[in-house]
Amino acid sequence: MISVRELKKSYDREHQVLRGINLEVKKGEIVAMIGGSGAGKTTLLRCLNYLETPESGTIRIDDAFIDAQKPTRKHIRALRSKSAMVFQHFNLFNNKTVLENVTEALITVKKVPKKSSEDRGRELLEQVGMLDKAAVYPSFLSGGQKQRVGIARALATEPEVILFDEPTSALDPEWVAEVLGVMQKIAARGITMLVVSHEMRFVRSLATRIVFLSEGRILEDGTPEQIFRNPRYERTSQFLRLADLSLESAAL
Amino acid sequence: MQKIFDPAFMLSNVPEILSYLPVTLGIAAISGACALIIGLGVALLRFYKVRILSQLCALYVSFIRGTPCLVQLLIAYYGIPVFLRFINAELGTSFNVNGIHASVFAIIALGLNSGAFMSETLRSAIQAVDRGQFEACYSLNMSPWQTLRRIVLPQAFVTALPPLGNSFISLLKETSLVFSISVVEMMAAAKIVGSRSFRFFEMYIVVAFIYWICCLILEQIFRYIEKRGLRTQRRES
Ligand SMILES: Nc1ncnc2c1ncn2[C@@H]1O[C@H](COP(=O)(O)OP(=O)(O)O)[C@@H](O)[C@H]1O
Ligand SMILES: [Mg+2]
Questions:
Q1: Ligand 1 mean position to A41 CA, how many Å?
Q2: Structural domains for chain B
Q3: What is the pTM of this model?
Q4: ipTM reported for the complex, 2 dp
Q5: Cβ atoms within 10 A of the Cβ of A135, count?
Q6: Residue in A94, A108, A109 nearest the CB of B232
Q7: Across the interface, do A108 and B155 touch by the CB < 8 Å criterion?
Q8: Residue B175: CA count within 13 A, CB half-sphere
Q9: pLDDT tens sequence across A175-185
Q10: How far is the CA of B145 from the centre of ligand 2 (A)?
Q11: A81: helix, coil or strand?
């Protein structure tokens, strides 16, 4: 479903951020992407959405394909239509109500009539438990509520994959559970998810697969069981301990 | 015996002065609308750092900021006809240079003047919209134009409203300079009426009050629009 080959990206000449990423994701997989700060997780996610332009390599999502050496506007649009992004800092449209945030892309991009996009929007808000706030503007919401709207907005265009960049790390602890609850719900519906997260509850119980990124390379790739029980590299266990993700810290 | 100050004369001439208010307001409104369009265009060219054009815009803004409005008016008044005559001679066109009403030059000059200031306001207001909202738009496959029109500009305008209001108020007051290129508006009328009896001071007091009242009304209008724009924001108190 997703197939990334030899993806390379650098922001400046000396420092290569992604050094040849190869990644295959099957439909319905819930992939947790972990790794230290600066490992390139955000950059990889943003390249998949072409918010960041990689230098070389190829990306395929479903039937959309792009070669970073010759991207066209048409290819970028096709690729973007296959994925949706949930941002660490929500990035909701401040001048739009909660419902309008969800329907915006349906109306402007998919050209769905206003009435049916609103019906669809309400349905999605219901699913994330935000229907009662449909007419409210984002600045009146708590962090957890904002992120639930962010997820509803991402779901609206029915993407093949949803890319989450640390969806709970900007939240106060009390709001994390409700966002995880929503993520669990959509995971259960079989939507493919690629999630950068160090939230133990997500990584250990929701993810079907863990990818460990270090210095722009994928160092480990396997089921949570494999990664936690026998990581291939010492660096991985070190990181798991530091990130409070290891078995010992789970036992505490 | 001549009175030192003649309130009766002053009041009796208020209607005549007021009859020129529409001219003043008309010039202000049309050049204000032009200024807004110019300002937005320049702000976008500079925001997106469009090659060459954004440098030219920077030059334009710097020139307007660094020269007096009166000088700009005079340059437009004398310069545009020269330019048109040049075009006529070079390209064989036949613009009727003498047929252009002086108020057209006034509107061009004031529009360009105020547009430069508005472009600075709008540019920083667009920059103040956080990058994340642009990215959310792009990730949803919205085009750059949809992003601007539906998400970015509505927010930028709210941020820009107080300084834009100030620009409009300045513009209204600067229309008082256009009598110097022979446009008869309120200020020119005051001079003309004043010269009939050499009671300039009384007439200047009258126009001063009319400008003041107009500015107060404009201020209220902008305050109202701003309040409406801010309804999407939580009040931090
Ligand atoms: N817009 C940018 N410009 C320059 N360097 C960047 C930019 N974004 C990220 N980087 C650099 O790229 C590296 C990887 O960043 P990022 O992908 O955000 O890592 P992570 O999300 O894993 O913490 C870091 O060294 C960071 O400083
Ligand atoms: Mg990151």
A1: 8
A2: 7-236 (1.10.3720.10)
A3: 0.90
A4: 0.93
A5: 9
A6: A94
A7: no
A8: 32
A9: 999 999 999 99
A10: 28
A11: coil
